[in-house]
Amino acid sequence: MxxxxxxxxxxxxxxxxxxxxxxxxVEWIRAFFEENGKGCNAxxxxxxxxxxxxxxxxxxxxxxxxxxxxxxxPDGEQADISDSYKLVEHLGIKHxxxxxxxxxxxxxxxxxxxxxxSSQTLINMAPRIRMTTLYAVSQSLNGRVANTCNLSEDWVGxxxxxxxxxxxxxxxxxxxxxxxxxxxxxxxxxxxxVDKTPSDGLCGKTxxxxxxxxxxxxDKYIRTGVCRSAKTKALIDRKHALNRFKMRxxxxxxxxGGNADRDL
Length: 264
Known about the structure:
CATH topology: Rossmann fold
Number of helices: 11
Strand content: 5-15%
CATH class: Alpha Beta
Strand order of the largest sheet: 5-4-3-6
Distance between the termini: 45 Å
């Protein structure tokens, strides 16, 4: 069994160099801002989990703390919001708190009689309102919104479409959960934030409870193609196939024989 920090490439076992990948990602962020927003700020939704913590820390290293803005977005009361405060204080970045409860309550109240929200609609409402909030802050402060999803989540569609699945740049989209954690340690982030049990904060369950398998199993399968349980492999493959549309550009009718998916 492969340990964290190792992966396969064309059948060859290689080590994951967290320090090098961290440095390369920092340079990538700098290059993105040079091309897509010179002088702009990085705006990040701070949940208190490892992903937003790592993205914020990478942006601080790339741009300096004066150009990184954290946004805390509780929906009423948030039990673990102290972790979000711990992160922004650790990095020394400017931050704003926008409580979205009024927005979520307002949308629920605005639904007409006879049109009942499904349970999934209610679960995904807050992430979508949070992304609207991030873009409102970003546009007001000359910013670019950071996506904080990682490869493991994206692989099985564990994100909300037009919620946490979007953004202007995505430092972690090619990194598994295990790799993100190693980069977090390379960045010197507090251990309790990096090792925090991942949870969506929406339905009261951990990510792994919702998925039906561990990130360790998923990461190994992504990097090596190996999954000991045929049942788990089938579940991962099914989630991957059903949710791939979330990561694709919206399809368009190719009028005139052109390619609607072309780079405009």
